[in-house]
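Reviewers asked in the last cycle whether our approach scales beyond single polypeptides. To address this, we selected a multi-component target totalling 361 residues and predicted its structure end to end. The input consisted of the following lines:
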Amino acid sequence: MAFINYAAREINCKIVYYGPGLCGKTTNLQTIYQRTSPDARGKMISLATETERTLFFDFLPLALGDIRGFKTRFHLYTVPGQVFYDASRKLILKGVDGVVFVADSQEERLDANIESLENLKDNLEEQGYDLEKIPFVIQYNKRDLPNQSPLEELQELLNPDQVPEFEACALTGEGVFETLKAVAKQILIELKKGRR
Amino acid sequence: MLGYQSSLVMYDEEYQRIVEIADKLLRESNAKAVFLVDRNGQLIAATGETEHLDTTSLASLTAGNIAATGGLAKLIGEKEFSILFHEGEKDNIHISIVGGRVILVVIFDQRSSLGLVRLRVKKGSEDFDRTMEELDRKSAEEAGSGGPQNPFAEITDDDIDNLFR
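The resulting structure, written as structure tokens, was:
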């Protein structure tokens, strides 16, 4: 649910990075943080365990610039990927404007990807959203690793609806901004349609 | 089932009213800062000593806090916990839910007290709630009548691409 503030001439949108544990959601945000100029980004907050696993969420506010005199801000959130943090994941999806599903390309994580995507659909439904109707993109992360599933297999299993998809290596930054840009674009197009 | 859900829209008039109520609450409760935050973590208004605070993060964490305690409440069969209080060595934070939809945050130190803050928050909440109701009414009317010019109605692909240069 975007927040359009005519008084401050601002628009705020919420993007959630979803995916199985250790797929690279937090790394996506860290890379965006490192490669964005300091005046365009806020502080990145990570609520993580001592072993740097996400406990509740990561948060990164970005101010991308103006569109028609309105400051355009995106609030990026990650969810904790580990299965048993489901209650927290549901909370973070509240008010979401767009979702990025980060898939782990490694063969042994194929089932975890499928399970997480099903979990995303279920949790969105609980909040009254339909994944097919909201801005949604898929990122196939860790394409640099040797033991990866073929792209065709990932596409077939995770992206039957053929939403925009990107190969990425979040650590080196490859595909990270392309993913963000694609979901942001979809969100702005929804706003253009005037469903507010 | 919904796809894209409707947005929260804030207009000048209601924004001014909200800032007035927040200023009054700040004065009367002897607080350091007063914030109004949407339940999804967007900052609506801030007043008081906010220049050294990261207000964006504060809004996001407050909403996360309310969401997490709301989850806890449901687990024990409560609807929600409408007031949260965090006591620090110098500064304290009083968080309350207004009208079920926005979050009021008051930061105060030893110049005030929990009792005074609670008392003033109660009165202020009624005023905030009334203004938010007016805002809802106005949003519904504007949406029905086509509303003020949708600022995004005419954006182009170039506008969007320019954001990422």
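Chain B has one domain: 12-163. We regard this as preliminary and will revisit it once experimental data from Aim 1 are available.
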